[in-house]
Amino acid sequence: MDKIIVPIDFSKYSEYALEAAAILAKQNNAEILVLHMLEMSDGLFSGSDKGQKPKVLFFLKLAQQKFEEFLNKEYLEGIKITPIVKHSKVFSEVSEVAKEHNADLIVMGSHGVSGFTEVFVGSNTEKVVRHSEIPVLVIKQKPNNLNFETVIFASNFSENAVSSYIRATKMLQDSSKMQLLYVNVPGENFKSTAEMEQEVANFLKKADGNMNQLNTVNYVSDYTIEKGIINFSNLLGADLIMIPTHGRKGLAHFFEGSISEDLVNHANLPVMTFKI
């Protein structure tokens, strides 16, 4: 891991993300790209209204000043920090910055949302999860350490999740132990024990070339996949949840939703997502 992006809004949650990124950066000798997006319209930068130029310069100067204050942290000492300011708040731009700088990971803080706000507004973090082509690590609390000793990889173990599983295993520390989780829910997606075991066996043969991890697979039943993942994580005392995501957008996202985004909003544990 060479480069980590941390989008910030100067809140305590983005500071949690920055501190988590600092821990990872020191572990991997990585650079941190600190990204702030100003809520400014393109019209301010078009040059058509010269009277707007002082306003633009003021906001850019203010962002620079806030950056300097925000980045004045002891835990950042010895880490290469690159501040980046984007003038508009378009969350797909985070992915564009990641691609431009060949970043390996996005770390974000989130307080989560629920109810009406969750459906019609959504959190900034879940928008990044939806658009990102690289893994996103979501932090909810101030990190004491990031020694992810017990890690859960939750999946339906379909063939298109193989690449996410391989990337997830490469992100783990040597001390980490991964537990695989299959959540069986009522309805048309319900599977028998034999069907689940066969699907996981086929998955591991394709992903690992063997079935050595078969003894790490856990099968649980619950009313929803999200509840199954959270309940099992709490029971196991997990340190991190890893999950593939389709990154659905538009009507598909509205009607089908996203399990990964639900976890980002509701799980207290750190969640790392991988785009399928």
UniProtKB/TrEMBL annotation:
Domain of life: Bacteria
Gene3D superfamilies to which the protein is assigned, alphabetical: HUPs
Domain UspA: 2-140, 213-274
InterPro entries: Rossmann-like_a/b/a_fold, Universal_stress_UspA, UspA
One Pfam family here: Usp
Family stated for the protein in its record: Belongs to the universal stress protein A family.
UniProt name for this protein: Universal stress protein
Species this protein is from: Gelidibacter salicanalis
